[in-house]
Write a structure and sequence with these properties.
440 residues; Rossmann fold; 2 domains; eight-stranded mixed beta sheet; 15 helices
Length: 440
């Protein structure tokens, strides 16, 4: 079944086939001699389908259901949900048609319409790119053997100038899952690892490389689908050079879905375990012990999208001796902003002062003067007004604290797939130059 979970559900042939079969089933059911009873059934299907779809859109946007926090459904969903439910209702009312074959087509339409709607709404978000990621199932193969951290090439100067790749360097990096146990009550899902081409050479000592630790949003699943292709492309233009990337889980087994595990809020807590310690003690130790990475903070980047962006800014502010660079892609302004009351109650035991102390602003004040030459890079979609406000405030906080702030608005991007597809390439281009992976 691995091949099935790897099927692309946004750009691949699978959604096109499902959409095409759905349209064919609709056409087949509509080609018939109209009768008053049949016309009434069509009217009912249209009314209930459109009304139900619009009602769901309004309900989700007003209640912030499905873990969307302050974010409304993507605009394409406003079309997909009414259209999909209308097609479903057409299939349901057609079950009363005469003829076995028409009943079979009607039943197929119900199934196809529901699947098409799910695929269409998922494509509107643009975050889950495979069948597996839609269901929170990793499609990456485990990495059982890592290249040894030593010996490594000793290079004097920036890598873009001093590293000369041997002929056996692969064209692309490798990726897969790794286990980094937390050692506490916190139970993260498997982390993902990206090793760039320069890390995979065998004929001579590979260079030590910078490190990125990345997090996705809430709800969400750790994935390399957005950053790995960008780094493969950039590595192809820069002697195979790219940071080594760990994409880790800051949410826990449920991925932060409403009604299950809420937001651990980037904090150590009695309720969810030591999330902060996992990212700022366990993962750094794993990287130093197991990976061929540079160890100076200026070469280490903490990075996150949405909920993960709040954690990235929080930990960059709290641990300047670990993270010399921070990237927030459409980041929440602070941990727990989407479910403030629930987070205060469950993560912080009802203590609002602890909630406030967990914000980046508190750590920035505590560590004032420790951020000289530290990068804080914020990107946000131009069609994402709530998060544009968040980003503007975070940029000002970072500037006031002494970071080197960079702020980029991605034209036309929303909060979901567009934010990632536009924000990550911009961020990596800036980071490459800062880390000496490409010319300034």
């Amino acid at each position: 079944m691995t091949w099935f979970y790897k099927l692309n559900v946004i750009d691949g042939p699978l959604p096109l086939v499902i959409y095409g079969l759905t349209v064919i089933a609709i056409v087949v059911l509509l080609i018939r001699r109209p009768t008053p009873a049949w016309l009434w059934r069509i009217v009912i299907a249209l009314a209930v389908g459109i009304g139900g779809g619009v009602g769901i859109v309004l309900w989700v946007n007003s209640t912030h259901a499905f873990g969307l926090g302050n974010m409304p459904l993507p605009s394409a969903s406003i079309l997909w949900l009414p259209a999909g439910f209308t097609a479903t209702m057409l299939g349901i009312v057609s079950l009363w048609e005469r003829g076995v074959w028409r009943k079979i087509v009607a039943l197929l339409l119900v199934l196809l319409a529901l699947v098409s709607t799910a695929l269409g709404v998922n494509a509107a978000f643009g975050v889950n790119t495979t069948v597996g990621s839609m269901f929170g199932i990793s499609v990456e193969e485990p990495i059982h053997s890592l290249p040894k951290p030593a010996p490594t090439a000793t290079l004097d100067g920036p890598l873009y100038r001093t590293w000369n790749p041997p002929s056996d360097m692969p064209a692309k990096g490798t990726r897969g899952t790794i286990e980094i146990p937390s050692g506490s009550k916190f139970a993260p899902r498997p982390a993902l690892l990206y090793l760039p081409p320069a890390a995979l050479v065998r004929s001579e000592a590979p260079p030590r490389l910078p490190l990125i630790v990345m997090m996705m949003g809430k709800p969400g699943t750790p994935t390399l689908d957005f950053i790995a292709p960008v780094l493969d492309e950039m590595a192809s233009k820069n002697k195979g050079l790219a940071p080594i990337v760990i994409v880790a889980d800051q949410l826990g087994p449920s991925g932060g879905l409403e009604g299950s595990t809420p937001d651990p809020a980037c904090a150590d807590s009695a309720e969810y375990g030591d999330v902060d310690a996992y990212f700022n003690q366990v993962i750094p130790k794993y990287a130093k012990d197991r990976l061929n990475v540079l160890t100076d903070p200026k070469d280490w980047t903490i990075m996150g999208y949405s909920n993960g962006g709040a954690c990235a800014f929080t930990w960059a502010a709290r641990h300047p001796g670990i993270w010399g660079n921070m990237i927030a892609i459409s980041g929440d302004e602070y941990p727990g902003i989407e479910q403030r009351a629930q987070v205060i109650k469950e993560t912080f035991g009802g203590d609002e002062k602890k909630f406030e102390a967990n914000k980046p602003a508190a750590a920035l004040q505590t560590n004032a003067g420790a951020f000289k030459d530290h990068l804080a890079l914020f990107t946000v979609g131009g069609a994402d007004p709530t998060f544009m406000d968040y980003a503007a405030r975070m940029v000002q906080q970072a500037k006031d604290a002494g970071f080197d702030p960079v702020h980029q608005v991605i034209p036309g991007a929303d909060h979901v797939g567009g934010a990632l597809k536009g924000g990550i390439p911009f961020a990596m281009d800036r980071l490459y130059r800062r880390l000496g992976l490409s010319a300034p």
